[in-house]
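Hi team, as promised in this morning's meeting, here are the two structures we talked about. I've kept the exact order from the run log so nobody has to guess. The first one is mostly here for context; it's the second one we should focus on when we meet again. Sequence first, then the predicted structure tokens.
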Amino acid sequence: QVQLVESGGGLVQPGGSLRLSCAASGSILSAYAMGWYRQAPGKQRELVASITRSGNTNSADSVKGRFTISRDNAKNTVYLQMNSLKPEDTAVYYCNRIIRSAFFDWGQGTRVTVSS
């Protein structure tokens, strides 16, 4: 079975940066279009950035220009570089496929807290 493990979260001040990692076992992530999702308190999970197998990327308006999704096939890992962080970015961040009908099981996510 495919297992997704997110890491890299933590507490950071507004304006700071973090890099999140999504590692997988049981499958090669380069074969799939992947995305980063987040779930803030009291809100539904939302897609914030995605990357296709060919390397095309997209991001939500709320993070455009600040977050960058990338992929390192040699390490079987997908990354999310987050710059200029804002308090409203506070959430638990998850990775998964962007095709809803073929989601892998969700991992535990990694918590990002942006606060002074």
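And here is the second protein, the one for discussion:
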Amino acid sequence: QVLLVESGGGLVRAGGSLRLSCAASGRTFSRYGMGWFRQAPGKEREFVAAIGWSGGSTYYKDSVKGRFTISRDNAKNTVYLQMNSLKPEDTAVYYCAADQDYSGYYAYPSVYDYWGQGTQVTVSS
């Protein structure tokens, strides 16, 4: 059992920044691959970013490259998503997820074992 709790969402203007946090409980957090996904109303859930258990490998959706940065602090059992230069099209509920088995198929929701409840990000134009 792993509990993930996102925080840091909110309302920002286009061009602004937010940092999302995902706090995890569980003694094996440091060995989990972690991902961020987002879902806008009427849209499918889409991959945003992922990070390997050691933090050495990161992956991003093309449209967020150069703007978003995923990181993790295993000592704090926390993964972050720093979002800069936000655009209205980034508006969505953002979810963090943990992959216990570390399959390597990081962009697919089905490989993740645990999910947070989501945090709303709204970017105004």
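Starting points for discussion:
The CA atoms of residues 23 and 56 lie 19 Å apart.
The mean pLDDT is 93.
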